[in-house]
Amino acid sequence: MRNRTFILIATCAVLFASCGTTAPFTRGELYPKMYEEKPVTLLVMPPINNSNNVEAKDLLYTSISQPLAEAGYYVISPHLAMEIFKAESAYDAELFINNSVTPFGKVFGADAVIFTTIDEWKKQGFGIRTKISYIVKSTRSNEIIFDRSCNLYLDLQDNNYYGGGIVGALANVAASAINTALTDHIVAARKCNAYIFKDIPQGKYRKEYQQDREIAAEAKNVTKTVKQ
User: Which of 51, 105, 132, 214 can pair with 139 through a Cys bridge, CB separation 3.0 to 4.6 Å?
Assistant: First the structure.
């Protein structure tokens, strides 16, 4: 009986240990098409805005290019792209996200298209809440080759500045209201973008190009609380 009990305990220990040490996915395993298709030129589409913040679409659109360029990609000028989108009645990305993006490859010379969907962007408590999903879609295969989402809370409260107690709490409430009114909401968008594209396989213009397959990939769904 003792031997059976010992064997059962040992087996459970091995199973729990193996579960606890499971290796995370690598970038190469999560985003194999990024390495196979080797996109160089990216086109950012106007965001899809499902939030109540009417300015969110433009704020996000103007902030996406920089982290992609820093990751080694050539990003088509959003200002130039926007002029063409408006001229061709292609400003609403909702019309294209589930359809073929091959025409964008022919018109812009883009290898892949970036779609973003804003599900939430609002004042919440002492800060700003943003929920945004991102996908990169190939203009060659029309497949999604990279996708992540970000649920980010930008905390604008300074806990140390006014001290503790009721007076400090009331002062923080007043300061938060002022800061949120004055703080450019694009700060929240930039932080979301930074967390999302931190994990994108590096592009042609970075020395890590095609060399970062074995790097452990981060979670696809990012949840963060950050200070401004």
Answer: 105
Domain that includes residue 208, residue range: 24-119+131-149+186-222
Task: Answer yes or no: are the C-beta atoms of 83 and 89 closer than 8 Å.
Answer: no
**Residues with Cβ < 8 Å from 27, sequence gap 6 or more?**
34, 199, 201, 212, 213, 214, 215, 216, 217
- Domain count of the chain? 1
Tokens 């804003």 locate to: 118
At 172, is the pLDDT very low, low, confident or very high (cuts 50, 70, 90)?
low
Distance CA 180, CA 158 (A): 12
Q: Is residue 160 part of a domain?
A: no
- 173-201 burial code (b ≥16 CB/10 A, e <16): eebbeebbeebebbbbbbbbbbbbbebbb
Per the confidence metrics, is the pTM higher than 0.90?
no
Run of H or E including 131: strand 127-138
Residues 120 and 131 sit within 8 Å (Cβ to Cβ): yes
Q: Is 7 among the domain residues?
A: no
Supply 151's token pair. Answer: 């649920």
